[in-house]
Amino acid sequence: MKRTIIANWKMNPDTPREARRLFGKIKRAAAHRSRVTTVVCPPTVFLPLLQAGKNLALGGQDIFTAPRGAYTGSISAAQIKFAGAAYVILGHSERRWPPAGTGETNEVINEKIKLALATGLRVILCVGETARDERGDYLKIVREMLERGLDRLTRADLKFLLIAYEPVWAITAPTSVKSWRGTADTPEDFLEQSLFIRKVLAARFGQAAALAVPVLYGGSATPDNAADFLTRGEAAGLLVGHASLRADQFNKILRLVDRSA
Question: Which end of the chain is more exposed for a tag (fewer CB within 10 A), N or C?
Answer without folding.
Answer: N
